[in-house]
Every structure is written in C-alpha cells, then in structure tokens.
Design goal:
Number of domains: 3
Mean pLDDT: 90
CATH class of the largest domain: Alpha Beta
Order of helices and strands: HHHEHEHEHEHEHHHEEHEH
Strand order of the largest sheet: 2-3-1-4
C-alpha cells in the first residue's frame, strides 16, 4: 500500500532530517521559531497524506498504523431492498473518494473544513444478514462465529448488515467521515452500533521500536504477517478461484471488542506478565531471546530445564506452529470507555482480523486461545461481528458493484 500526497511523505528519516534542520537553524539564530516552523510543516504534511481509495484491495486492509480507528455497523431499514442498497453504495463510494482526497462531499456539513485527508481510509464489508436480505448466496465462510469460553457477547453491539472501518491520523477527519456516511444513509440504513479507538501514527513512538503498545503495556502487532511474506496473499485475500466470484480479491473481517481486566492484570508482577505473554515488556523480544522480531524459540529451555516460552504463553498458543499454519492479519485499536458498574476500567482492544477464510483463520486460533492461553484469564470478548470485504473498485465503479450486478 502506498500513500500519495502533494508534499513528500514524512518518513522517519525525513522527520529526523527536518528536526535536525530545525535544531541547526534555532542554534544559528538563537530562537525557537525555526523549530516551530518545521514542526508545523511536519504536521501539515501528515495531515495532507492521502491513501488512494481505488485500487486492487480496499485501502484499510493494508494501510499503516493510524492514530484513530472507528468502526460502525449499519442495518438496512425494513422494507428496503437491492435498489436502495445499490443507491446507498453508490453514494458512499462517491463520498469516500472525495473524503480520502481531502475534498468535501456534496452538501457537506463543514465539520472538517480546513483539514487534510490525514491518511483517511474507509473500508466497507457485508454481513450475512445483508446477503440474505438481497437473496444472494451466503458464503460458507460467513457462517456465524461460534461461542468461546469466557465470551460475554452483547448482541446489541454485535453483528450488522454492513460494517465500515474508518482509520485516519485525526479524530475530526474520522468523525466527519462517519457523519457523512450516516447522513447519506438516511432512509436506507441506520447505525446499529459504533465504537472508536486509538493507536499511534508515524513519528509518534520514540526510540527504535515502531510497534504500538496496547493498554496492558505490551507491544501489539509484532508477529503480524507482512506483504511479501510467503503465503501472505493466500492467507489474507480470497483467491482468483474463490466463491462467490464477487469476493475474489477481497477478504473477510472479524471484529471483536475485547475488554482487558486491567485491575487484575496489574496485580501480576512484571516478570509474571511477561511469562503470560511470552515476550519482554520493554523490547517485545520473545523470552527465548533476541530482539522484537527474532523468531520464537519454542524449544528453547531455561537453565532449570523449563521452557523459556511457557506451555500456556500467549505467543506459543497463537503461533503458526500451534495452529497448523493459520495466519490472520491483525489491526487493533485501544479503547478506554470509562468505568464499568463495578468501578473497574471498561478498556481494552477493538480487535480486527483480515483473512481469506475465517473458519481456518480466526476461529481456529481463538478456539485454542480460549482454552489454553494464560492471557485469556485477563480478557473478555464483549462484541463480535463478521463481514465479507469485497475487493476495491476502479474509478467509475462503486463498492460492491460486482455483488449487485450478480443479483
């Protein structure tokens, strides 16, 4: 995935060069104005970054870390059918193209006037309930996600006919995009549930580690597959022979709201927390040794003969070796929604997983984690949804057009 911008992208190297230039100018002039000017330029460049809407795959799947991630599920209004859904997808596609380019959609509310696109992505998926409404065949991979031990799923904050993921480096930009699609859906669909989360963006994380941390203090996303890895496309995207045809080049998205029992987690020593996860908290390195991205040494032993990465450690139970090679592409955003009725934090992770087959991806992995992972004692899954993510569209076409034309 590439980004396009009127200004050069601010890579970490360029950001360092700009900062050095500011320091040199400030030292030469004896003032802070140059540093402030360069900081402003960096902020503007970040706000003007664009991620193309059209392409081979919907942009939100492979987009880099963004500071804000919001997810909304829509239900089609009773009595509405293919005609209304087609019109809705057309209007959403037009608006998404404009918004991701930093242009206002028709009848804009001016909420984001003066803001750049800030790497905005808008990714749309279809639930099994929508396909049934349209009388379209439901792929076997869209079968309901089974219940798992310790699940506390709220049906009112789960499921949905259409799921939309918004990511960007500015909250106003994300809110504006959600409001735009919500306004355009009036009379055809309404928001069933909506959740917002936060992460990091380029240039924010200090030190040599770019992987963001979750609210448990762990680096989150170290083991994610990367484009170019062997088998990446086959694991994440539906292949050219996939069924149905409208989903070829697309993906499946599992959404889970995972509450972290942070007060209970905090009672553990740092050493014990690292044993539960199987990685060091400071560097993210596996307990078998090395650096953050060193492969897991699942056979490595401590001097006393015990496994360096324990039998029930999270990284062991989630590993390829433990799950017959199952691979998912994770995209997570932390959330912090205040306190629960018992006074403990309602905080955790908006977990999303893209894969070509959720039955042999997320479901296979989660069945093992729910039963054998030490970390499962400190989390609760409270929301769940599954969507088929159609491939991206070319200019002049709209999202889901292949599906609508196949009806």
């Amino acid at each position: 995935m590439t980004t396009e911008s009127p200004r050069p992208a601010v890579t970490r190297r360029r950001l360092l060069a700009l900062t050095t230039l500011a320091g040199t100018a400030a030292a030469a002039t004896g003032g802070a104005g140059a540093a402030a000017a360069v900081a402003g330029e960096s902020a503007r460049a970040r706000g003007e970054r664009r991620i193309p809407f059209d392409g081979e795959h919907q942009a939100g799947i492979l987009a880099p870390y963004a500071a804000h991630g919001w997810f909304a599920a829509f239900d089609v209004e009773p009595g509405r059918g293919a005609k209304q859904v087609k019109a809705l997808l057309r209007s959403w596609t037009d608006a998404a193209r404009r918004l991701t380019e930093g242009r206002p959609p028709p009848a804009d509310d001016a909420m984001a006037t003066g803001y750049g696109p800030a790497s905005l992505t808008i990714t749309v998926g279809f639930g099994a309930s929508l396909l049934r409404r349209l009388r379209a065949p439901v792929p076997a991979a869209l079968a309901p996600i089974p219940p798992f031990p310790r699940d506390e799923i709220d049906p009112g904050r789960s499921g949905g006919d259409i799921g939309v993921l918004f990511t960007a480096d500015d909250a106003i930009v994300v809110a504006h995009a959600l409001r735009t699609l919500t306004r355009l859906s009036r009379g055809a669909a309404h928001v069933r549930w909506q959740m917002s989360g936060f992460s990091t963006s380029d240039g924010v994380v200090t030190g040599s580690h770019a992987t963001p941390r979750n609210l448990m203090g762990q680096l989150d996303g170290t083991g994610n597959p990367r484009p170019g890895d062997a088998g990446f496309d086959q694991s994440v995207f539906v292949g050219p022979a996939g069924d149905p045809a409208w989903l070829r080049g697309g993906s499946y998205l599992v959404f889970r709201r995972i509450r972290m029992l942070l007060d209970e987690w905090d009672t553990l020593s740092r050493h014990r927390q690292e044993q539960v996860v199987g990685r060091r908290k400071d560097t993210g390195a596996p307990l078998s040794g090395g650096t953050e991205f060193t492969p897991l040494g699942l056979d490595k032993q401590n001097p006393d003969g015990s496994l360096a990465i324990g039998p029930s450690a999270h990284v062991r139970q989630a590993s390829l070796q433990s799950n017959d090679g199952a691979v998912i592409l994770r995209k997570g955003f932390s959330y912090y929604d205040g306190q629960t009725t018992d006074g403990t934090p309602d905080a955790g992770l908006l977990f999303m997983a893209f894969q070509s087959d959720p039955v042999n991806g997320f479901t296979r992995i989660q069945q093992r984690l729910a039963l054998a992972d030490d970390l499962s004692r400190f989390i609760r899954h409270t929301s769940s949804a599954l969507f088929a993510i159609p491939r991206a569209c070319r200019p002049g076409r709209y999202l889901g057009q292949d599906l609508m034309e196949a009806l």
